[in-house]
């Protein structure tokens, strides 16, 4: 599809409601040419931080009001152009967009057309916070380079292989179908990348291994991956279900919502905000950063200790559940901010699971590093691994594969 064989660069855009993260990668060798972030879009205190890695330049910052996503992308384009990496470059093959919700329909990276955009728009009711920002990002990029392929890479796509019995909620089918209520799962780009990298670490093909992936960032999700295909994941209709997260509750009895509505006089929006923004670790102890929680535990703080224990207990339950779903497990892989850095979380999540073949070697677990690595002792039947995620590289890889096919 690419006219120019020298066009090997992909710009990856991740548009949030008030932020725009980007990376420019060269798929000829996977090199990162530039990375950056625009935050607080629409506020007086907007900030653009741009690092031109290709030229070895240092980070540049602009702190002035950036009114909207169009202005943000224009500012990013100007920064890239200043480094000779402008969006008008013939070396740019595609722009890859992270799109959070692709529903049941988008199972693969997809070339953006008007019809595709309309479909992403129809999914706004199930992703009200994310899809509108993603659509804005795509439209803005299209306006800047109308001739360039824009590729949507969906957070939900990897999970579309879930069998129907894992994707269905046990509620009235007609109601569920009329309102798109089913389990979609998120962080799919990360789960796909990490499950493949875990197979690589074991020296196997992804089709030969069963992996439990634990993506533990500020948002957190687990997935059960059989032979390279997702068979279950912990997030559902929205990213609220499943593990305890930085600010989200994860699993709760749905009746908590009716109880708060009827007896605490809380509105739907208030309960939505409670469960998404004031729950999880921050709700339990006032902090959502695992570093701060560990520091408080070291000082003897009981609330921080309880928050940690609730977090780990849920994590352990999901490891057990996905062990049962898979029947045989070759590896458990920890990834994202907490998974890659918080050795005490990894140790506690696996503690006591020796009968399942799971153990962590204290020394290996304490070591730090950027590379994928095993932290289980040699005797353990199941490998436990730390596998750094790289969602931008995965989006660029998928987008490039599509346009260069
Ligand atoms: P992410 O969403 O993947 O960027 O992860 C962000 C979270 O990772 C933060 O909120 C922290 O809780 C956690 N994190 C980052 N670095 C560390 C670290 N060195 N130790 C423990 N937790 C960390």
TrEMBL record:
Any one biological process term the GO annotation gives:
acetyl-CoA biosynthetic process
Requisite cofactors: Mg(2+); Mn(2+)
Query: Can you tell me which family this protein belongs to?
Result: Belongs to the acetokinase family.
Q: How is the cofactor bound?
A: Mg(2+). Can also accept Mn(2+).
UniProt xrefs under PROSITE patterns: ACETATE_KINASE_1, ACETATE_KINASE_2
Q: Could you tell me where this protein is found in the cell? A: Cytoplasm
**Where does the entry annotate site (Transition state stabilizer)?**
187, 248
* GO MF term set: acetate kinase activity; ATP binding; magnesium ion binding
Where does this protein come from, organism-wise? Streptomyces caatingaensis
UniProt-annotated binding residues for Mg(2+): 14, 391
Its pathway is:
Metabolic intermediate biosynthesis; acetyl-CoA biosynthesis; acetyl-CoA from acetate: step 1/2
Q: Which residues bind substrate?
A: 98
Q: Kindly list the residue ranges recorded as spanning the membrane.
A: none
Official protein name in the record: Acetate kinase
Please list the residues that make up the active site: 155 (proton donor/acceptor)
| One GO cellular component, as annotated | cytoplasm
Q: How does it assemble?
A: Homodimer.
* Cited function: Catalyzes the formation of acetyl phosphate from acetate and ATP. Can also catalyze the reverse reaction.
- Swiss-Prot/TrEMBL catalytic activity: acetate + ATP = acetyl phosphate + ADP
Entry EC no(s): 2.7.2.1
Q: Does the keyword Secreted apply?
A: no
Alphabetical UniProt keywords: ATP-binding, Cytoplasm, Kinase, Magnesium, Metal-binding, Nucleotide-binding, Transferase
Source species taxonomy: Bacteria, Bacillati, Actinomycetota, Actinomycetes, Kitasatosporales
Positions with a binding annotation for ATP: 21, 215-219, 289-291, 337-341
């Amino acid at each position: 599809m690419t006219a120019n064989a020298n066009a090997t660069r992909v710009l990856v855009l991740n548009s949030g409601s008030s932020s725009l993260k980007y990376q420019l990668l060269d798929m000829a060798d996977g090199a990162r040419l530039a990375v950056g972030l625009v935050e607080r879009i629409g506020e007086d205190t907007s900030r653009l931080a741009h690092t031109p890695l290709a030229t070895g330049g240092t980070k540049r910052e602009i702190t002035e009001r950036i009114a909207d996503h169009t202005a943000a992308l224009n500012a990013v384009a100007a920064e890239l152009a200043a480094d000779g990496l402008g969006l008008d470059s013939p070396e740019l093959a595609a722009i890859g967009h992270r799109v959070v919700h692709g529903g049941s329909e988008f199972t693969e990276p997809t070339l953006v057309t008007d019809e595709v955009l309309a479909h992403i728009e129809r999914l706004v009711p199930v992703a009200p916070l994310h899809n509108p920002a993603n659509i804005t990002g795509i439209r803005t990029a299209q306006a800047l380079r109308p001739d360039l392929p824009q590729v949507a890479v969906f957070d939900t796509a990897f999970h579309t292989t879930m069998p129907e019995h894992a994707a269905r909620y046990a509620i009235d089918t007609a109601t569920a179908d009329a309102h798109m209520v089913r389990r979609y799962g998120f962080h799919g780009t990360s789960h796909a990348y990490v499950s493949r990298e875990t197979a690589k670490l074991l020296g196997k093909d992804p089709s030969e291994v069963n992996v439990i992936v634990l993506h533990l960032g500020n948002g957190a999700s687990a997935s059960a991956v059989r032979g390279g295909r997702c068979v279950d994941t912990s997030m559902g209709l929205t990213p609220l279900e499943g593990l305890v997260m930085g600010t989200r509750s994860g699993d709760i009895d749905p009746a908590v919502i009716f109880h708060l509505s009827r007896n605490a006089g809380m509105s739907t929006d208030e309960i939505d905000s409670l469960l998404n923004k004031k729950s999880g670790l921050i709700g339990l102890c006032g902090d959502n950063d695992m570093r701060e929680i560990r520091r408080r535990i070291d000082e003897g703080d009981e609330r921080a200790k309880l928050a940690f224990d609730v977090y780990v207990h849920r994590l352990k339950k999901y490891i057990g559940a996905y062990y049962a779903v898979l029947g045989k497990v070759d590896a458990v892989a920890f990834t994202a901010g907490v998974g890659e850095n918080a050795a005490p979380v990894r140790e506690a999540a696996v503690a006591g699971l020796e009968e399942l073949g799971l153990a962590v070697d204290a020394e290996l677990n304490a070591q730090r590093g950027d590379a994928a690595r095993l932290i289980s002792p040699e005797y353990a039947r199941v490998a436990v691994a730390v596998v750094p995620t790289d969602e931008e590289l995965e989006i660029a890889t998928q987008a490039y594969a599509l346009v260069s096919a």
